Amino acid sequence: MNRTIKEATVKCYPYDSHQQLDAHVHDFIDAYKYGRRFKTLKGLTPFEYICKIWTIEPERLTLDPTHQMPGLHT
Known about the structure:
By secondary structure, the chain is mostly helical. It has helices at residues 2-8, 18-35, 46-56. The chain is 49% helix and 0% strand.
């Protein structure tokens, strides 16, 4: 994981300050966790698993998870 973070952030982009590096690392880790597939979720990403559970048991969730997607809202 450390190598992945370093290659995707520190080695690819020049930073003017430590705050820029810190913000980019946090954004990268959030995106990595959001898009990673987990064995415990049977190969699904956390978002895919939540959507699957919502279609099976909609009473467990109060909001439609597709409305809570991060990213561009177009």
